[in-house]
Amino acid sequence: MVWRRSILIAAIGLGVPAANGEAAAQVRDATYRGTLVCSNLPFGKGLLRSSIQVVVSGRDIRYSQPVIAARGNTLGEETGSGTLDGDNLKLTGAWRGEGDSYEASYSGALKRRNFMLNGTQIWTHEGKTYTRTCSGAIKRPLAAFLPKRAE
Hints:
The chain is mainly beta.
């Protein structure tokens, strides 16, 4: 009976992440994927839904997402960077096309494996400025924080 208790205690110990900052950062280091939904623009139609990919490495963050036109074709890619401070991330980025462009900023907080994102895009279209809000979520794959199997 004693040996069973020892095995159980050892198994529980392996599943508990370390409380130090380095271990927490390693758990957050991953490629997160999700969806961002942005409000309509006067020159577009309907809500815009696009995929977003965010790569977290330590406190540094890089992200990208396709820029999709009202007709559904891809115009290019919004790219940006940001920082992770504890459980909070901040992203800034931009996209420039032939006649249009925008500056973007998003922020979010970590909840388990997800970051819930909120932000704005400041568009310039035909010499006029438009602001739209965006929200969404990105998720870290489960395998990103499970221990690697010994080979």
